[in-house]
Amino acid sequence: MLYKSYYTSPIGIITLASDGKALNGLWIEGQKHYLGKIKEEMILNDKLDVFIEAKRLLNQYFLGKHPDFSGLDLSPMGSEFEKIVWSILLEIPYGKTTTYKEVASRVADKMNVKNMSFRAIGRAVGHNPISIIIPCHRVVGSNGSLTGYAGGIEKKISLLKLEGVTMDKLFIPKTKKL
């Protein structure tokens, strides 16, 4: 059985999902891959300890403080490969960014392989089911391009600015015209 709760944030309504113990999902309203792999109906329950703690930490986060999310029990639903990628995202410090290339290199090291597909990394980052807490918004292109955020580029920028990331070397890529 899965439970849900809602949190009103400055970037939109957030849906939280839990199995009753761990946090399984956190999605921003309107983002791609909303609810991820969850196919069953979730029961509204605002009283779960994991939801209460997640909301307390999100309140701190959106006040511009540096909350410690490490105490939250996280159990994202995904493949073993995706979970490896997400574990590396958890290591990106607050207020810092990394590149898809760096994530790919770290995943390759962790999996003891020579190379890792940037496309596979991008897909795993984009399908992160616990946005903000597993900080996929901190991943940028090697050239500074702000791409690949399922919540939308505007929300990615808002989150990075909230964390105090220097934006002068980051940019929104121009879309190609057909």
Structural summary, described in words:
With 178 residues, the protein is α/β, with parallel strands linked by helices. It has 2 domains: 3-71, Methylated DNA-protein cysteine methyltransferase domain (Double Stranded RNA Binding Domain); 80-162, Arc Repressor Mutant, subunit A, CATH 1.10.10.10. 31% of the residues lie in helices and 15% in strands. Strand 2 and strand 3 form a beta hairpin. Helix 2 packs across helix 3 (100-111). The chain is globular. The termini are far apart. The model has no long low-confidence stretch (mean pLDDT 94).
Low-confidence regions: none
How would you spell out the order of helices and strands? EEEEHHEHHEH
Strand order in the sheet with the most strands:
3-2-1-4
Content of β-strand: 5-15%
Tally the beta strands. Answer: 6
Number of alpha- plus pi-helical segments: 5
Largest sheet: 4 strands, mixed
N-end to C-end Cα span: 46 Å
Outline the fold blueprint.
Blueprint: E1 3-9, E2 12-18, E3 23-28, E4 43-44, H1 49-62, H2 80-89, E5 98-99, H3 100-111, H4 118-126, E6 139-140, H5 153-162
